[in-house]
Amino acid sequence: MNSYYTSNRQPLPETAFAFLPLGSVKPSGWLRKQLLIQAHSLTGNLPKFYDWLGPNSGWLGGDGESWEGGPYYMDGLVPLAYLLEDKELLAEVEKWLGWMISSQDETGRFGPKPLTDWWPYGITLKVLTQYQEATGDPRVIPLMERFLAYMRRELPASHLQSWAVYRWADTVLGIIWLYNRNGDPTLLELARELMHQGYNWSRHFLDFAYTQKQGLAYPHPTHVVNNAMAVKTPAVAYELTLWEEHKQAAWKCMEMLDKYHGTAAGVFTGDEHYAGKDPVQGTELCSVVEYMFSLENLMQVFGDPAFGDRLEKITYNALPATFSADMWTHQYDQQANQVLCTVDKRAWTNNGDDSNIFGLEPNYRCCTYNMHQGWPKFAANLWMATDDDGLAAVAYGPCSVNAKVRGGKEITIDVDTNYPFEETIRMTVRTSSPAQFPIRLRIPAWANGATIAVNGEPAILSQPKDVEPGTFATVERVWNDGDAIVLTFPMAIEVERRFHDSVTVKRGPLVYSLKIGERWEKLGGEEPHANYAVYPTTPWNYGLAIDPENPQAKVVIKDVGDVVYGPDTSPIEIKVKGRRIPEWTMVSNSAGPLPQSPVQSSEPLEELTLIPYGCAKLRITEFPLLSE
Ligand SMILES: [Zn+2]
Hints:
By secondary structure, the protein is α+β, with helices and mostly antiparallel strands. Among the domains are: 145 residues, Alpha/alpha barrel (Glycosyltransferase); 106 residues; 120 residues, no CATH class. The protein has a seven-stranded antiparallel beta sheet with strand order 2-7-8-9-14-11-12. Strands 15, 16, 17, 20, 21, 22 and 25 form a seven-stranded antiparallel beta sheet that branches. Strands 1-5-6-10-13 form a five-stranded mixed beta sheet. The longest helix has 21 residues. The chain is globular, with a radius of gyration of 24 Å. It starts with 16 loop residues before the first strand and ends in a 16-residue tail after the last strand. The mean pLDDT is 98. Bound molecules: zinc ion. Zinc ion binds next to helix 13 and helix 15.
């Protein structure tokens, strides 16, 4: 158990790591610039022009939006504001949190008067816990205690309904957070009652029955966002029960989602229900950010480095892919093979025709509310605290962590890198006097030949003995001010076989897609948050000439600029060879049925440019493999 950061109390099990309080990790370098792009676009501006989050919001005391919108927005606003320490965003936080906290009545209930659904309260608890960690505001814990006592009184007569049945784990996360601070055993009774009224996601994944694209009926258990949220639910159920079944399910859920609905970018299809593995099926933005949050929780509970690998894959690929580079517009559904974004019929399970355009609220406005949590929570959770009073780097990006380590000493580690666009991560320890503590460094499973150097010498590991991909390497020593750690993660080009034996090119945490010329056409709305269709201006129907077992390609490293995730600002390119496949054409406004590989083509061999999936707003990611 960590001596300085709140860990599970008995009878809850010990977790692998403890979360650091919001604000302990601050983004730097390109990651900070990415958060600034978010702050200067929708997160910082929605309340100024978007009625659903405007002054009339029910979550600000008005008679407007009174359901999940306000809480979703706050769930991303709060971490973004405290990570950037931005005055305007902090004032926005005070406005929303101030009203929410002051709205509690004598029964313990808070929030908009018309709200009768338990589900949005699960989000408000996530908001309140982050806010309390960042500010220490003394009103938060008593508010949560009074509210959860109210919930415990009401729940026997007012059961979970609809979304709340499937999303109960989010409320339980808030309950566990509070229990670990006040030790009130009635909180665990409430948590178990919620679990019993809620859906059993562990059985859902252990006996997985949804192996096909869904048609006709669209029940909650196949809903894409419910599933992305559910990825953490077995871990939460395990914390409450210590049942081995729940622990197994924590890995089984990702295995099942990958096997039957997985995409090249590490997420799964759902448009907005399970849609199978065809790369023209869609993945909703809400499910991207919820999957990330689930992985951050899985990492904290179980500490499997594979969760960090997946978290980086989703964050560095699927998340930026579904936004314009300026983050003013987003899609509802992204496709791995996405060659046209227009208001037209596509083979979605049940989403609307505008689901893949870039706009303010395509298809439905949930993503406009919920998108904000993705980047800031990722940045906030790059480091966690270990049970032996050290620190663990669970994911990588430029940042600075300030935290207490063994002996109560406060230290800082600066992480300087352009990762995932470079293979080297440089860390510098800052301490006022020598300090002995362990640093755990996640070695990605793909990083064959990874090395760790401390002050220019190969690091001596406490465990395992050697630097092994897919493990945490522990370096424990007396750290002096200025000690330098250099991680090198060689990024070999890899080919993954996918739908219809197609090929996807990967390198390190990044997935690569064909760079397609893009023509953005305004459909309506007001700049800069207007709606846009995107048309291809260059061909996309290529097969790749590449040896999947021994892929060779030229890697072109460029500068990392102020805007990373745009098609023309890509910091890295991969050059491969391919030929057009004339019979592979557009069908139903998407790339037509993916030809079964291998495929023959007598078209000329061309050099093709691949860019990171997240940079390419039009893309082919799963390519037919040429037979040559
Ligand atoms: Zn959504």
